[in-house]
Amino acid sequence: MTDAFRGCPEDGENKKICTFICIYANFVVILQPFLTRMQKKGLFILLLVLVLSSCGDYQRLLKSRDPEEKYQAALLYFNDHQYVKAQTLLDDVSAYYKGTERSEDVLAYLARCYMGQKSYASAAEYYQAYVRNYPKGKYAIEAYFQIGHCFYLDSPDARLDQAITQQSIDAFTVFVELFPESPYAEQAYKEMNEMYDKLAYKEYLSARLYYNLGTYLGNNYLSCEIVSRNALKNYPSNKYQEEFNWLIFQSKYQQAVHSLEELKQERARAAIDEYYNFITEYPSSKHRKEADKMSAHIRKLTNE
Description:
This protein is mainly α. Helix content is 77%, strand content 0%.
């Protein structure tokens, strides 16, 4: 085989056409020494007829005035993973079927088409439209779940704004309340917990930033402690709990070390209390050795 397959689309009707062309190209290369000029021309004409006929059917459908034909063709294209063609045909017939029983199906399949195209924001809009119009419809369970799932898939990096992440959590919360026994429930809880972890991680990054700023333009160690405690309160099951508690102890320690003399004893005792809280909760922590050294240093401060 040659390099003819490079650049071919990865799905849909275009892939079939491109693949056929590539096979033809390789076939001609292999048999070129044995083919006459007329034979080559005949093969090319055959190829052209097949390509045009495959493209022509879709173009004919676009011009068709038969909504039922378009709808049935859209389902065939959808099942063949040709989501753009399916979506286009469904858009064409959506106004015709509005207010009919089929309108529910059109709306659900439009949402699915956008999911297939990985256009999650558009898919979420169509699923939201579905639950507004058909809150107890035959696709209701799927729609309520997919709203949260779309936001989950569109959730950005933790360093960016997390409004979409919160939307995912809110949507999943509604879903599990309405359909606790649904087959989607387990996945909904899993993805919702991932979204909570992402929000917690954003808070962790913020707390780390305050800690790294230290005493620059104020007591940033106290800010680190406050952010960490709030994160533990707001996201009690997050996977960064140990790191938040470690930051709290480190912040207490640093506040004692950098304290004014009149506050040093009080802050040192608070740091020691935090040390015991930490090692009691995480006796085998990877930070244990460092925590022990810091505790020993604090005890020296209290004896001075």
